[in-house]
Structures are given as structure tokens and as C-alpha cells.
Design goal:
By secondary structure, the chain is α/β, with parallel strands linked by helices. 32% of the residues lie in helices and 21% in strands. The two termini are 39 Å apart.
Amino acid sequence: MKKVLIPTKLDKVVSEILSAKGFTVVQDMETPFADLAKANADAEAVIVRSEKVTPEIMDLLPSLKLVVRAGAGYDNIDIKYARRKNIDVMNTPGANSNAVAEEVIAMILAAYRKLIPADISTRAGKWEKKAFMGRELTGKTLGIIGLGHIGRLLAKRASGFEVEILGFDPMITKAMADEIGITLTSVEEIFSKADVISLHVPENDATRGMVNEKLLSLVKKGVMIVNCARAGIINEDDLRKFKAEKGILYCNDVYKKDAEGEKSIADVADVMAPHLGASTKEANFVAARRAAEQTVAYFESGVTTCVVNKGVPDGLNAEYQHLASAIAKLARAALGNEKINRIETSFYGNLSKYAKWMTAPICAGLTKEFDPYLDSKDAQEFLTSRGVELVNRQVDDAKNYGESITIDLVSATGRVSVRGTIAEGRMMISRVNDFDRLYLDPTGITLFFEYSDAPGIIAKLSGKLGEKGINIIDIRAPQNLKSGNSLAVIKICSDISDTDLKAMAESVGAVKAFKFSA
């Protein structure tokens, strides 16, 4: 019976669904998460809201296989460490979307009609109608940055106010935008033209601090900015600088830390709430239900649709990532110690759409410095930091290479090119440079000797290995007719020293020799 740990307040439907399916449910929002984890070390799944799932928490749960975030954002979970521990992390996209969209409308109306200070004043017995002259939303221009579930629902909810809606999202098509009444445009144009700007983007390296001096200098006087997304996307100092000058109204529901204490944005926010976006009974119910349903589907049917830290995307055989790593490692061995300036890749057949998923395995194959559990973005940053250019070439599938991978490593003085594929469920290297039809299983220890073709070379190399008491498992000897060279590829049962490898190469006059171990 699988145990699910829920250290948060969620609608009882989560326990009902899981219990009905035979799961043991431990739901406790009072006990500190770490203590709860220690007491339930056999838990195989955890469902959280805003609780942080840190490496320390995961280490306390050795049986953990799944973490479900009952909501859309998952930056409270260390997804990279989870991947390293082979723990899948899911979110429940869309579960909270309507609640957040409605909160944005509520904040806009509250700020325009000055409802919060008016309430405080009236409760104090005052009658300050003139002080609370407001504005109407109807007829204004609404700009929405990010058109995911929340952004699209906001557009739908706001349309009843007869607003013009401008939107930005690089992933949405014009046809989809037209269908929901949004005019797609640039971020800069939204900040220049909109009366109200609502932010609905995740916080990452691309969006952190995106609302800064450059954008704020473009806004109209009296513009309203609503942030129910993430605190880090606003440069607070720049907002503070432009607030008075531009008469900016600012509504905020997100903070650097969800906890009691002074908030750094308090002096510039006109409306503040304690991260209430998803705090509706309806959203809590939907998030709880989806979290439970996804947990059941994961363990009963292996459904991983909402996993956000997949090492392997749906539709890709993980063996091709292992192949990419092996090809890169072999190419690195063939290139020797020369500095790599450029990596050129070709992914044939169905693999072409998974190119980005191969970047991390390739980096891991090239050097032990790169953690294989990091993602494609980390891999690209790793290469860029070392001055290595990555080029993914367009392929010609008319060559009938099937689903294969070619990786070229380019240095200042040379190039190594290796192609491989998966055949009968096993990795196979089909070409090294101009030596084609190699059909080599890259596992184990393999020696490579390139030499001017002549009779007796294979016998000499075999004899040298025999003298060392080393058995040969397999031999391949393709020839390059253009150069007149042959390549002896010898798989051996145990390792040899670099000194012995060099002596063998010299005994046959090899122009190149190297050892590969996978």
C-alpha cells in the first residue's frame, strides 16, 4: 500500500480519492515538514501547495518517487535535485487559473475605485467622498504579459468591461489570440499603450527583473500594473523611481518570501494581498482533486503527462540520450586533448524534434565536469561559458539514416565526426570519420588504430594483446578507399595502459591511436 504525504491544507477530496484507491494518506499541516518526513520515511509521494521541497526533505524520504505541486508554479520544489534522485515532479496546470484571473479583476477595481482606503475611512466615521473619486475600467486598454491559462482567462473575464486587450506571449499563435479577442504585440508596445498591465509569466533568468527602468519609462501617466505572478519579475527600485513621476498604481500579491514580516514593496503598492491568488474554495478543490487524480494515474497507469522535470520527453526513447552521450564521448576520445571550439549535431528522422533534449547528454559525454542530471539550458550555459559554439544542422532524411545521430567536434586544427543509432535495442556506432559501416557496440573497452593499409597489421596487434594476456572480444577493420587508410577497432576484455597502447601503435606505424571506454 503506497503512502502519500500531504503537509498542507487541501480540500478533503484529495484524501477521499486516494484512500478509495488504496493509498495510505497522511495529511498534517501542523507538524513541521521535516519532522513529518522523518516520521513517514516510507512515503512514495508528496503533495504540496507552497511548502518548499528541498534536497534535505527529499533525502529524508528514500522511497519518494513523485512530488505533486497542487497548482501551476513549482519554484518551491528543487526539480533538478529531484531529477538527480529520479523523483518525478508534477504540477496541476490550470487548477488555480480562474481564481487568479478573478483576483486580478478584483485588484483592478479595488485600486481604481479606492475601495480599501475608502473602507478604512468610512469605518472610522468619516465621509470623504471627494477624496475617493475613482476611475472606470470600461473602455480602457488592458495589456497582458503571458497568455497561458491565467492570461487567457483574464482576457475572457475582462472582455465584459469592453476593454481593448493587447497581449504578448511568444508561444501563442495569432489565430488563437484572435479567437479570444487579443491583439498580439510586443512587450514594449503594451507598456507604451496600456492603461492596465497584468503580469502572468514565470520567474526565470529571462524574466527576472524584466519590468525595469527601460519598460517603466514607456508607460502612460496613471498606468496600473498588477503582479499576481512572481515577485522577482519586478525591479522594485525602478518601480519606486517611476511611481510618483508616472503616477503608477501598483497592485501586488506576490513576495520574495511567503511569510510574516515587513514587505519591501509596501511603500509603492496601492493594493496588497498575502498571495491569495489561488486561495478560493473552488481552486483548492480543483487543485486537490487533480493532484489526487494525477497521483493515482501515475502509480496505476504510468501517466507522466504533467511531469515538469522529465529527463526524457514523451515520445523519446531514453536510449537515444545514452547514445548521444556515448557518441560525444567517443568523438572526444578521437579528438584527443585539443580544445573543442564547436559542436555540430545532426538528428535524423523523428529525433530532429528532440534536439534540445540531447544537449545535456552530449555535455555529459564530453566531460565529467558536467552533471548529467542538469537540463538543456544548463548545458547551453556550460558550453557558452567555455567558448564552445553548438550548431544543430538541418538534415536530409532522404539519406535514409533512420533515427540516427551524428556529432562532429571541431578544434582549431581538426574535426572528428561520429554517427550512431539504436539497432535491436542496442547502441551502435556506424561511422567514425570516413570509416563507414563500422557497426560497433560502444560498450566496454575498445582500442582504435588508424594506419596505412597493409597486410598483417591485425595479426600484429592481436599478437601484442596476446603477449599481455588480454582476450579480444570483437574486431572491426573498415577501410577508407580515398585515403588508403584502415581503422582497426578492437574490443578487449580488460584494460591496457597508455604506455602499452602507444607501443602497439608504434609497432604498426599507426597515424592515430586512442582508447575508448563506455
